[in-house]
Amino acid sequence: MMKVNPLEEDEMELRPYKTIHALRAGEPAEVEGVIVKMDGDGTVSAGDSYVAERNTGPKLLIAERIDVENGFIIPTSLAYCFSIKECVKVCEA
Fold first, then answer.
1. What is the CATH number of the domain that holds 58?
2. pTM greater than 0.85
3. Is residue 2's pLDDT more than 50?
Protein backbone atom coordinates (compact mmCIF):
# COMPACT_ATOMS: atom_id res chain seq x y z
CA MET A 1 0.00 0.00 0.00
CA MET A 2 1.36 3.41 -0.95
CA LYS A 3 1.73 5.90 1.89
CA VAL A 4 -0.06 9.19 1.25
CA ASN A 5 1.65 12.30 2.58
CA PRO A 6 -0.30 15.41 3.64
CA LEU A 7 -0.06 18.44 1.39
CA GLU A 8 2.93 20.67 1.97
CA GLU A 9 2.13 24.27 2.98
CA ASP A 10 3.41 25.67 -0.33
CA GLU A 11 1.06 23.31 -2.20
CA MET A 12 -1.84 24.60 -0.09
CA GLU A 13 -1.06 28.14 -1.26
CA LEU A 14 -1.59 27.05 -4.88
CA ARG A 15 -5.09 25.75 -4.20
CA PRO A 16 -8.07 28.15 -3.97
CA TYR A 17 -9.31 27.10 -0.53
CA LYS A 18 -10.86 30.49 0.23
CA THR A 19 -12.75 29.39 3.33
CA ILE A 20 -9.78 27.56 4.87
CA HIS A 21 -7.48 30.53 4.20
CA ALA A 22 -10.03 32.97 5.69
CA LEU A 23 -10.47 30.85 8.82
CA ARG A 24 -6.70 30.53 9.31
CA ALA A 25 -6.43 34.31 8.95
CA GLY A 26 -8.85 34.71 11.89
CA GLU A 27 -11.89 35.65 9.82
CA PRO A 28 -15.33 34.09 10.46
CA ALA A 29 -16.96 32.15 7.63
CA GLU A 30 -20.42 30.79 6.88
CA VAL A 31 -20.42 27.07 6.17
CA GLU A 32 -23.65 25.14 5.61
CA GLY A 33 -25.64 27.98 7.21
CA VAL A 34 -23.47 28.18 10.36
CA ILE A 35 -21.06 31.04 11.06
CA VAL A 36 -17.82 29.56 12.38
CA LYS A 37 -14.34 30.72 13.35
CA MET A 38 -11.07 28.87 13.86
CA ASP A 39 -10.85 27.27 17.30
CA GLY A 40 -7.43 27.56 18.95
CA ASP A 41 -4.63 26.84 16.50
CA GLY A 42 -6.99 24.97 14.15
CA THR A 43 -5.55 21.52 14.83
CA VAL A 44 -8.28 18.86 14.61
CA SER A 45 -8.60 16.03 17.16
CA ALA A 46 -11.16 13.21 17.41
CA GLY A 47 -14.57 14.62 18.38
CA ASP A 48 -13.84 18.13 17.07
CA SER A 49 -16.00 20.08 14.63
CA TYR A 50 -13.98 21.10 11.60
CA VAL A 51 -14.27 22.67 8.18
CA ALA A 52 -12.80 20.76 5.27
CA GLU A 53 -12.50 22.20 1.80
CA ARG A 54 -11.69 20.84 -1.61
CA ASN A 55 -13.02 21.41 -5.12
CA THR A 56 -16.64 20.73 -4.00
CA GLY A 57 -16.62 23.62 -1.52
CA PRO A 58 -16.36 23.75 2.27
CA LYS A 59 -17.98 21.10 4.47
CA LEU A 60 -18.75 21.27 8.21
CA LEU A 61 -17.88 17.89 9.74
CA ILE A 62 -17.07 16.12 13.03
CA ALA A 63 -13.87 14.09 13.32
CA GLU A 64 -14.24 10.45 14.32
CA ARG A 65 -10.51 9.79 14.27
CA ILE A 66 -7.26 11.12 12.82
CA ASP A 67 -5.17 8.84 10.59
CA VAL A 68 -1.83 10.50 11.34
CA GLU A 69 0.18 7.86 9.47
CA ASN A 70 -1.57 8.63 6.17
CA GLY A 71 -2.45 12.26 6.91
CA PHE A 72 -6.26 12.06 6.77
CA ILE A 73 -9.19 12.97 9.01
CA ILE A 74 -11.97 10.38 9.11
CA PRO A 75 -15.37 12.04 9.71
CA THR A 76 -18.29 10.61 11.71
CA SER A 77 -20.47 10.82 8.58
CA LEU A 78 -20.04 9.14 5.20
CA ALA A 79 -18.27 12.25 3.90
CA TYR A 80 -14.91 12.23 2.11
CA CYS A 81 -11.78 11.72 4.25
CA PHE A 82 -9.91 15.01 3.76
CA SER A 83 -6.18 15.58 4.11
CA ILE A 84 -5.20 17.09 7.47
CA LYS A 85 -3.92 20.17 5.59
CA GLU A 86 -7.39 20.72 4.07
CA CYS A 87 -9.08 21.00 7.49
CA VAL A 88 -9.41 23.55 10.30
CA LYS A 89 -10.93 23.00 13.76
CA VAL A 90 -13.83 25.42 14.26
CA CYS A 91 -16.42 26.61 16.76
CA GLU A 92 -19.48 28.82 16.35
CA ALA A 93 -18.59 32.49 15.98
1. 2.30.30
2. no
3. no
